[in-house]
Specification:
Blueprint: E1 3-13, E2 22-26, E3 31-35, H1 43-58, E4 66-71, H2 82-89, E5 93-99, E6 105-106, H3 115-127, E7 140-143, E8 146-149, H4 169-173, H5 191-199, H6 204-211, H7 228-243, H8 246-249
Parallel strand pairs: 1-4
Antiparallel strand pairs: 1-2, 2-3, 3-5, 4-5, 6-7, 7-8
Length: about 260
């Protein structure tokens, strides 16, 4: 499982995103960007962050370390901002912490990754259907002259239909990925070769281990998915079905 820490001080909100994450200090002396389960986007975004972020880490892509972080109810008492206080009061218990990269800068293209890293990032985004890595919102940071991936909540969008529809892995597998607006599209020069390299590493066991990092309480059940194990299996089936159909979703097709 992900390391677990406890919040000791709420520092400041980050108002750039719609979910208003906050910078929080924890009992391990670490400082984290915390994404709250009580935010309007709900826990599915946190589930996606862990699945895609852990896939990236296991494939050797640079992503900040993630932890689960307990937010004590009392931490909201000393927050003067009413909007922030409401968010903290809605989020006691387990939340997601992402290691703060001090001094990092938003990606602007001035220090682009090499073609190999760009191809690996674009492949991951295509595989997980991450539509939110464009110039309007790159979701990349430059830190120590290296490109780091952050904010994967827009990927795996299929789960947003689960409350009303039965899971359909084949439908997700057949969704093409449009790379025209991807922030690294012009730099990714070998997607077929990258697919051959990375897809061999994404085994059923690896996917299962990544899914095991998600707190069970965040796996929302539905009529078609009556328990956490069923939700776990649905994510696994969707990812495996997409992995088997690169000729459909991979930009330029698979070799």
């Amino acid at each position: 499982m992900l390391d677990h820490v406890t919040a000791v001080r709420y520092v400041t909100p980050l108002r750039e995103g719609g979910s208003m994450p906050g910078i929080v200090e924890a009992d391990d002396l670490g400082t984290y960007v915390v994404k709250f389960h009580g935010a309007g986007q709900g826990v599915k975004v946190l589930v996606t962050e862990i699945i895609v972020g852990e896939l990236a880490r296991r494939l050797g892509l640079p992503v900040p370390r993630m932890v689960t972080i307990t937010l004590p109810p009392a931490i909201a008492r000393y927050e003067a901002d009413e909007e922030v206080q409401d968010l903290l009061n809605a989020s006691p218990g387990t939340n997601l912490g992402v290691d703060l990269l001090p001094g990092s800068l938003g990606y602007d293209g001035s220090r682009p990754p090499d073609a190999e890293l760009a191809s690996r990032i674009l492949w991951l985004d295509a595989f997980t259907a991450n539509i939110d890595r464009t110039w309007s919102n790159p979701n990349l940071l430059t830190w120590h002259r290296r490109t780091w991936l952050i904010d994967h909540g827009a990927a795996l969008y299929f789960h947003h239909s689960w409350p009303s529809k039965e899971p359909n892995p084949q439908r997700f597998a057949a969704q093409p990925f449009r790379a025209e607006e991807h922030v690294l599209g012009a730099l990714a020069t070998d997607l077929p070769g990258t697919h051959q390299e990375l897809s061999d590493q994404v085994t059923a066991d690896l996917i299962g281990d990544v899914l095991d990092q998600v707190p069970e309480e965040w796996l929302e059940t539905t009529t078609h998915l009556p328990d956490a194990q069923a939700v776990h299996s649905a994510y696994r089936d969707h990812l495996l079905a997409r992995l088997a159909s690169p000729q459909v979703w991979l930009p330029g097709g698979a070799a």
